[in-house]
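User: Hey, quick favor. My workstation is busy. Could you predict this chain's structure for me?
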Amino acid sequence: MHDLYYKGRIHTRVNHVKSGYNTKRTVKLGSQENPLTLVVTSDERKIEVEAIVADNALFADISVDSAADENINELNAILNKPVTTTFAKTPNRNDPCSCGSGKKYKKCCG
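Assistant: No problem, here it is.
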């Protein structure tokens, strides 16, 4: 079958292949296929970091190097993700006022 349908419409499969789903996504950081790469300075710190990684169901390659600086930035980035800020919706004009006066919002605080 050719690429054009009745009245010149583009074939849907070809259109999907050109602009469809992203089939080449990257693997999530901290998964088994793409573990975190962490560097700590002592064996005691390694045990602490392994406990944190296990509690959060992550995978990590932790190496101990006393000469290098500690680098657990990837772990901190995953654990401290920004949270979406939500605000309380202001009441409509005819809703009861949120201050508790019993009046309509438009007569009290609006």
